[in-house]
Amino acid sequence: MEISTLAMYHCLAFVWYFFVTYSITHLRTEERPSEVFLYGGQWKYLTVLNLVLQAVFYGVSFLADVLRLIKKLRCAKCVISSRDLLFSVLAFPVSTFVAISFWTLYTYNRELVYPKSLDGVIPLWLNHAMHTVVLPFAVLEILATPHHYPAKKKGLILLGFVTFLYISWVLWIYSVTGEWVYPLFALFSPAGLAAFFAGSLAVIVSFYNFGEFLNCMIWGQSKFCF
How far is it, in rounded angstroms, from Cα 1 to Cα 220? Predict the structure, then answer.
């Protein structure tokens, strides 16, 4: 894809995610279900954190494109390295995990992840913007431009560290409020919850590996995978 076309795409994606993030963080407070938006507000939900992550990623990607267009190649190289690390370790695996895990659990029992009381607060389009559109955007990014993946050990350590931070945030909220971020967690014993978190980490690691595989398959292993 031409750099100018890529810059336009990344700019539009950034604007889209900024708009969606703004929309979810400016819901009408008087209509919010009290059991959902307690301690931590929207910032305890992985879905909302992922929106911010995607906005940051596409903002960095747009900056890299602009620097390439104006021939600031030394600066562009540094920004591209940050872009690729952000995409490979977080943007792709997290957005894939959000979309697939949400709709899997929603299909099984929506009350576990997205109570029906939210239907009157969050419009249908916004629900799909948060939980559906993120996946095709992530796949399109791989198709649009190659990304240098870090060494496997480095990538997985960074992904595991960020996962640990989010789990710690979830557990902290429970320790303060006595309420779980997602009703699903209340079904587990402590050992069961630990197993669930471990299984979730294994799933998100598999998405990391899948993203690396797609990148290598589309753009060639010798040049872009190491």
Answer: 16
